[in-house]
Amino acid sequence: MAKYILAIDQGTTSTRTIIFDKSGSIVSSGQKEHEQILPQAGWVEHDPKEIWDNTREVIGQALSKANITRHDIEAVGITNQRETAVVWDKTTGVPVYNAIVWQDTRTQPIVDRLAADGGVERFKQKVGLPLATYFSGTKIVWILENVDGAREKAEAGDLLFGTTDSWVLWNLTGGIDGGVHATDVTNASRTMFMDLETLQWDDEILGIFGVPKSMLPAIKSSSEVYGTAHTSSLLREVPIAGILGDQQAATFGQAAFDQGEAKNTYGTGNFIIFNTGTEIVHSKNGLLTTLGYKIGDQPPHYALEGAIAVTGSLVQWLRDNLGLIGSADEIEALAKTVDDNGGAYFVPAFSGLFAPYWRSDARGALVGLTRFVNKGHIARAALEATAFQTREVIDAVNADSGVPLTELKVDGGMIANNLLMQFQADILGVPVIRPVVAETTALGAAYAAGLAVGFWSSLDDLRANWQEDSRWTPAMDQAESDRLLRNWKKAVTKTLDWVDEDVR
């Protein structure tokens, strides 16, 4: 009987399980959304228990749909929303607080406090990241400082921290009954605590943050056997053998293994990763330096990353908060009711601006409005915002690397939107390419797990699986593209300096 790899994709809005065959094709899947908890402006939380319950449910869904059992699964890979922080009691398995999501901005006062001595780039040379609310380190500090008894429990060695990959791994391997507390280098590189060169937790930085080292998971490679599923699981005794943060997983799934290769994921936010090989490249243009992947004992591969906070979630906002559309896939038809944006530009700085600006004081703005603008123009402006933000990050990648991208591989939910993909090619001035298997995040986690257990023998096997589905080439007049980009940059300036002491 054929064997398969199962991938768990613990994302920002849902948890999915996808089962892949040897060709990298999807055999079956299961998916379930979890609640977005928004206690106040700027706060975004998830219930870790709901995430774990959903994970177990979608594993069952995928196995049932494929009519297979654990005996047909060679290994399990995990991918996840990278900076979302969970802190739990290792003796009870109960989280001490909700997961604080990567989009959450409540830790800005902690960022300001840490930046008072050395600025926001205080630790960037060592960890590749600026001080920002985005990363998980300040989220741990907030929990220790604001949850009753958390500091004392942490100092006593009773609390564990993990991004959601660690939370899923720990529970899947037994939880309080011998659960494995580990993460991989890609997720560890998003905490602000891991030294890029040594791939170890940095004691000095932990001391400055005030986070006990005993809370942190062991740092492993992205492709090795971490443990086996607990006997209480539907996957009992199946090895868990791959972990990659979601954007690195998508890069892996796109087979962008070599220096100079890149991909852009269009999801809740957009994330461009440019592979710099075994060289650590420090950005001078607002990008992050991060781990790309590490296979077993092989040298790590590094990457430059452009993180954009709000793209697909802007479409959700138009649906859920404004009722402008009934479902996310309706936005393309609505945007097609007009020929252009009507002069309207939508800068979705809901959580400030990420790359290349890193301005936490920014807030969203819809500018250029006249009586002429209708809901079709607003829908189009929302889609165009994704393409404009991507262009600015690609410009930064080109400046840092010195080797301009000649094409862009894309993945994620929004790439089904043909209008957006054509506009993206027009604004970038290079072809945009969609693969046959668009679920590259889960596929990357599956690849990492499969490599570890010999299901695939080499990266060449994975390269051979990649196939092009669609290609969009630039069709817009250069002068028009330049005009639109100039107006976008003007719109961005209208979002800055909004937040001050009494406006959050």
From TrEMBL:
GO molecular function terms attached to this record: ATP binding; glycerol kinase activity
Pathway stated in the Swiss-Prot or TrEMBL entry: Polyol metabolism; glycerol degradation via glycerol kinase pathway; sn-glycerol 3-phosphate from glycerol: step 1/1
GO BP annotation list: glycerol catabolic process; glycerol-3-phosphate metabolic process
Residues that bind ADP: T12, R16, T268, G312, G413, N417
Keyword Phosphoprotein annotated: no
Documented EC number(s): 2.7.1.30
Residue sites binding sn-glycerol 3-phosphate per the record: T12, R82, E83, Y134, D246
UniProt binding sites for glycerol: R82, E83, Y134, D246, Q247
Bilayer-crossing regions: none
Cellular-component GO terms for this entry: cytosol
Top-level taxonomic group: Bacteria
Keyword Transferase: yes
Mechanisms controlling activity: Inhibited by fructose 1,6-bisphosphate (FBP).
Keywords recorded for this protein, A-Z: ATP-binding, Glycerol metabolism, Kinase, Nucleotide-binding, Transferase
Reaction equations catalysed: glycerol + ATP = sn-glycerol 3-phosphate + ADP + H(+)
Domain (Carbohydrate kinase FGGY N-terminal): residue spans on this chain: 4-253
Amino-acid positions noted as binding ATP in the UniProt annotation, renumbered to this chain: T12, T13, S14, T268, G312, Q316, G413
The Carbohydrate kinase FGGY C-terminal domain, residue ranges: 263-452
Coiled coil, from the record: none
Function: Key enzyme in the regulation of glycerol uptake and metabolism. Catalyzes the phosphorylation of glycerol to yield sn-glycerol 3-phosphate.
Family: Belongs to the FGGY kinase family.
HAMAP family, alphabetized: Glycerol_kin
Identification of the protein by name: Glycerol kinase
